[in-house]
# Entry
Amino acid sequence: MRNGLIWFFIAGMWSVAGFSQETWIFHRGNDLARCEVGQGNVRHVVGLMKITATGKDLTLTLRKGKNPTFRAEEGRFFAIRYRISGNGTQGGLFFTHEEWKTLSDKSYSPFPVVADGQWHDQIVDMAAFPHQNWKGNIHQIRLDPVNPSVPGTVVQISRLGFFPTREAGEEFLKKANDTPDFTQDSELDAPMQRVFIPGGTLREDFQEADFLLENTAVEGRPEENVVVFFDGEKEEIVAESEVNRCGFVRLVARRPGKYVLKNRPQTLSDVEGHPQEKAIRFVASRGLMNPVEKGIFAPDRKDSPEETLTRAQKAEKIMHAIQETLGCRIHSPFPPEYFTRERLRIGAWGNLAPEYFKEETIQTLADCGFDWLLAMSPISSIPLREDLLRYADQHGVEVYLHDGAIRHLPILAAYCEHPSFGGHYLYDEPGTTQFEDLGKIARAYRETTGKVPFVNLLPMYANAAQFRFGASAAAIEYYDSDPEIFRKYCEEFCRKFDVHYICTDIYPLNWSQGRKTTYKDYTESIHVIAQVAREQGRDFWCFIQTFGWTPSKRTPNEAEFRWQCYTLLSFGCKGILCWTYGTGNPEFPSLVDEKNQKTKAWYDARTVFQELRKLSDVYIQYRNLGAFAHRGENVPYLRISQPYTEFEVLEAIDCEEPLLCGCFEKKEGAGNALTLVNMTELQDEKEISVRLKLRGQKVVAWFGGVAQELTADADGFYPLTLKTGEGVFLTVE
# Structure
């Protein structure tokens, strides 16, 4: 969806005493808040920054400083101190300047890395690469610590910066302090484990230390299940221990030294069995519950839980058991039923800067009409996750997280019962070769947690290589579309993924020689995936064009937001999502900029989204049958290869202009509905008149989210006027 690149800015690189003013110090520094990590889960570990890769494209985004650019000669030498545990032999940088306006492989500047779990200092001469384009003003940079990354690889970066000389970079790296800071709270790798002051290694001046471990105790006796090793030998645990309401045990160390806390099993992958059984055995093995007592396993059939309860019953019981044990039930103004109700959801792909994140961020999102947020990292990672869910609960926003827990399920024990938590992001724009493995992950996730994973598909204008190998196979361009390949791609998704929806993104609003133009296969691309959704019993979701991220794309105005939404509604769309909400590129701001300041597009979108919120309860009462075009012979973007032709409630249309008509029947009881959308070219800004003859006694039109009962004229036609880009939903009884 995003062409695989994360955009960011490094600025303010002025040489002072041989050092750049704009450096990033992560260990014992505060610069982590200015950074964004893609496809990685970020944690604080006793004052040290730690990233665990969750995908193949681990990236580090460094937010801009005081100035938007820096001179290449002032930052010729890139200095980095890192430690990598896992896999990888190469890292790299991407950059842009006055001549190269976008990040691409042309600027890729690779350098070797060593993944041996030890600290390494690296100085990279940016002027020495064959591309010879480190020159002028450097605008944008992206760091790939490991390229490609392997999920599970751990990366720590102590500090980095750009310097005019190699000596300045070396001096900067020598000042690194990578010793743990035990005055800071720590997030450890072991699931549900928390350690506070001082943790880990004790200094000689400490008389005692407090530890918080997960409660593996049986009847309050942690010494029977928790093993503490002191300098390689088992350490006696004092009797004065306590269990708090979240299931953590407080332990007091007897003497200074190095303590290692060991618990079995450490990860869910260490437990054998089917996904649901694994989760049950994992929690049971850590002393969090007795599966027999909880009614999950029968006493004489511990190895065959599938025959004891249905999948839904098991999921419900384990969630209840975890909730009961951890004591994390939240009394919320928005219970889970608020989000699981059938509705027309308005969602956002949230690329929000963590340094500006606060309650107002979510309030602004909700005020715009959104009730669903796909929270990309880092706002969904540990430092902000608690605030994110709390603010979302206060403002009625359902949150999908991107914190790596979908591949490491025990992480979500801390928030799985939060009413605002809806599920996890899994993957964006995969190819069919990835469907098998991703489908298994999605199925295990649903069976174990009862939550829904999120996957977004490629649009119809992707090419054959991308449909097979994913978006990264090539840059997404507007190729000559092949609806049949796209249809097979969507059908294969439905075969491999056990989810209730199918989602794609379609961005139709272009600039061409100073005129507004529309993607030529727009309605056909919607028709194909919507038809598959109907045939497979899936909800249809779609990302709309939200802003112009490149000169060939335009930021929609109010009419163009409305036109996209009502076009999608005509094909039965139940989820309208925006990519992207918040952007770090000041040249192409989205609905809000990186500081959460509203743009004009926010106000235009808000008007439309609030209309849809009012329409939602009526719209979901009807089932979409298909759509057809009126006067669309000479309108390429209105072509529909298999129009719906059996909508008998509509007897006649009197209109000289192109229209899109969506056809619906009531799910329960008698009744029909239809949408009408003005499909004249948006460049022309043309208002049109429409007359409809309908079979029914009562016709209600929903304009701007407000119901208006219509009256037929002397000829039995209902007259309507549709402004540029306007659509209307009509019910007929």
